[in-house]
TrEMBL record:
Domain of life: Bacteria
Name of the protein this chain belongs to: PLP-dependent aminotransferase family protein
Domain HTH gntR-type intervals: 1-68
Transferase recorded as keyword: yes
Keyword tags: Aminotransferase, DNA-binding, Pyridoxal phosphate, Transcription, Transcription regulation, Transferase
Length: 476
């Protein structure tokens, strides 16, 4: 770790309000121990901070935050009306979701009309008959054994992989799993690889943990493995957070040929691959390639399989598969977080998952989603505007490039005024790029709403392009 990284770490913490005006910074010795670096490296960082007038020195006492520098920090602290202050935590995605609109293309969730609500309510009754004292019990932090048994048998059968029920932890959604893993794997300033673009909540979680995010380009052809190897050599990342199957936001799939090689790289450079596979069963034609986890023999892949999206977001069930070395700290983190996912939701999910209805539901759902994707594409193609996108073969989103230089943020502002929302590309990018890209989810709105919404969006984009005279918005 270099002095500049420590410099950035301190500036970030001052900006987040961890240290205010005239607060004393940790001593050189204690920070060196905390970050596991040489004292000289910390000393150089402090000297640089002093040179840039971010801190000042008190003779024989230490380094203190300059009031001018801390001034910017006030914005990062949230003050409640009764004067309590808290660190400001960012969740850019939920900020957008919170705005109520008629045409909701920002939330990658499935229309509740397509989910098995009636059947699930049936199972609720059955489950309470089978386990009358269900509400009177905690789950174990690792998760219900019966459910772990079932998932273990299912994945062994469908992927021909060696697995036992001790290698599974049930979490409250994949988002909790990302959060727990980042807590057990990342210390401030650790390098973490993330795809560019990526799931925006993961960026916020990893940044909240103090990670240095190193982007890896994800294209329709996959990753550039040579570039990844260079990054692994140079930065020695602790973790690579990835969503290689019907990736959010792009819908891309990492080809099977790259999966095994990536696991080999992870082993060689001792980097944990966190494989988030929330959309695996949402394919339209062909089944996607096997998860990377199935190639891993040495415990370098942790596999997150959420069922929130296509079974029931309300149940919040995700299975985390990992080898023993990772399972123990994960269980400890899970028990600190919430002592276990509620037993009642695990049992309801268990009984639905093992029923025939589950597979029937998936089949119907794939068809319904494919129709919605087709409708969205039809409307986008019909517009006299030069959008660009790659047809997703599964998942819930279209990743769309707006015509030359139209700003997605400006379009979003206009759209919100017309009760329409989408995700602007820059919040999915650790580098804050993709300013002219948007993520449109086709899974929540019905066909009529998709048609109306896309026509509205096209009109707004055309008006914006004309108003600001963006050069080539027309289809060539
Ligand atoms: C890639 C990805 N991972 C995780 C999640 C969150 O999943 P869950 O609802 O299981 O927490 C989402 C939700 O949109 C997602 O797109």
């Amino acid at each position: 770790m270099r002095s500049k990284q420590i410099y950035d770490y301190i500036i970030t913490n001052i900006e987040r309000g961890e240290w205010g005006a005239h607060d004393k910074l940790p001593s050189i010795r204690s920070l060196a121990v905390e970050l596991n670096v040489n004292r000289l490296t910390v000393f150089k960082a402090y000297q640089l901070l002093k040179q840039h007038e971010k801190v000042y020195v008190k003779e024989k006492s230490g380094y203190y935050v300059c009031p001018d520098c801390a001034g910017t920090a006030a914005d990062a602290v949230y003050h409640t009306p009764n004067g309590v202050s808290a660190l400001q935590v960012t969740s850019q995605l939920s900020d957008i979701h919170r705005i109520a609109v008629e045409y909701q293309f920002s939330q990658a969730i499935i229309d509740p009309n397509l989910l098995p609500n009636l059947f699930l309510s049936d199972y609720v009754k059955k489950v309470f008959d089978i386990y009358p004292k269900l509400m009177g019990n905690y789950s174990t932090p690792q998760g219900d054994e019966e459910l772990r048994d079932l998932l273990c048998q299912y994945f062994k059968r469908s992927n021909r992989v060696e697995l036992n029920n001790g290698e599974i932890v049930i979490t409250t959604g994949a988002q909790q799993a990302i959060d727990l893993l980042s807590r057990i794997l990342i210390r401030p300033l650790d390098a973490v690889l993330v795809e560019r673009p990526t799931y925006s909540a993961a960026i916020d979680i990893l940044r909240g943990q103090g990670a240095r995010l190193i982007p890896v380009e994800f294209t329709p052809e996959g990753y550039d493995l040579e570039a990844i190897e260079r990054l692994m050599k140079q930065h020695r990342p602790r973790m690579f957070y990835m969503n290689p199957t019907f990736h959010n936001p792009t819908g891309y799939i990492l080809p099977a040929s790259q999966r095994k090689q990536l696991v080999e790289l992870a082993e060689r450079y001792r980097c944990v691959l966190v494989e988030d596979d929330a959309f695996h069963d949402m394919y339209f034609h062909e089944r996607p390639p096997q998860p990377l986890f199935m190639y891993d023999t040495d415990g370098w892949v942790v596999y997150l399989r959420s069922f929130s999206k296509y079974v029931a977001p309300g149940l919040r069930i995700c299975a985390v598969f990992a080898r023993k070395s990772m399972i123990e700290p994960l269980i400890a983190a899970k028990s600190l977080a919430d002592n276990g996912t509620p037993l009642v939701t695990q049992k309801i999910f268990l009984h639905y998952f093992q029923s025939e209805r589950m597979q029937q539901h998936l089949k119907k759902l794939r068809t319904a989603l494919q129709i919605r994707r087709d409708v969205m594409e039809e409307e986008l193609s019909a517009a006299s505007i030069d959008w660009q996108w790659t047809t997703p073969q599964g998942g819930l989103n279209i990743w769309l490039r707006l015509p030359n230089h139209i700003s997605a943020s400006m379009l979003l502002q206009e759209s919100l005024q017309h009760s329409l929302s989408f995700v602007p590309g820059h919040i999915c990018d650790p580098n804050n790029g993709y300013q002219s890209w948007v993520r449109l989810s086709y899974s929540l709105m019905n066909e009529i709403q998709i048609r109306e919404g896309m026509r509205q969006l096209t009109q707004l984009a055309q008006q914006l392009a004309t108003r600001f005279d963006f050069p080539s918005y027309q289809r060539k």
